[in-house]
């Protein structure tokens, strides 16, 4: 069992997206990936969400590449509908540094299902 519900996407900018309409069952995990991912994730984000690796000054004239697993923040909180009194924690693990490999795995370690989730993916620079 993974995500339940139907993902609803709200593009905030080219590098910020809000996802609602999903929850995780007890002990379940679900995956979210970019539209350019070579192996499909459970939830595929719209192509308009366009985070990309970028370069920063590494000192001494060297440029270091910052991958997507380092530059995308994934946050979750209960979707505030229906009088939520307690939130079920959701763990996030990110992998993949390129648009073709980036994936976020969200896991519910608890013995009960989550309420509806509000998930934000945001690339910082």
What would you note in describing this structure?
By secondary structure, this protein is mainly beta. The protein is 3% helix and 50% strand. The strands form three sheets. A four-stranded antiparallel sheet has the order 1-2-10-7. It has a four-stranded mixed sheet with strand order 4-3-9-8. Strands 5-6 form a two-stranded antiparallel ribbon. The mean pLDDT is 89.
Q: Tell me about the largest β-sheet.
A: 4 strands, antiparallel
Q: How large is the share of residues in beta strands?
A: over 45%
The low-pLDDT segments are none
Helix/strand/pairing category: mainly beta
Structural domains: how many: 1
Percent range of helical residues: under 10%
The radius of gyration over CA amounts to: 15 Å
**Strand segment tally:** 10
Distance between the termini: 35 Å
Coarse morphology:
elongated
H/E element order: EEEEEEHEEEE
The residue-averaged pLDDT reads 89
Output the number of helix runs. Answer: 1
Give, in spatial order, the strands making up the sheet with the most strands. Answer: 1-2-10-7
């Amino acid at each position: 069992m993974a995500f339940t519900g139907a993902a609803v996407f709200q593009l905030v900018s080219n590098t910020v997206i809000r996802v609602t309409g999903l929850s995780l069952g007890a002990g379940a995990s679900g995956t979210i990936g970019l539209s350019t991912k070579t192996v499909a994730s459970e939830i595929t984000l719209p192509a308009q969400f366009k985070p990309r690796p970028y370069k920063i000054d590494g000192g001494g004239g060297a440029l270091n590449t910052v991958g997507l697993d380092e530059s995308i923040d994934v946050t979750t909180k209960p979707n505030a509908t229906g009088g939520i009194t307690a939130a079920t924690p959701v763990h996030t693990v990110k992998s993949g540094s390129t648009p073709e490999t980036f994936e976020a795995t969200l896991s519910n370690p608890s013995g009960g299902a989550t309420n509806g989730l509000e998930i934000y993916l945001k690339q910082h620079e």
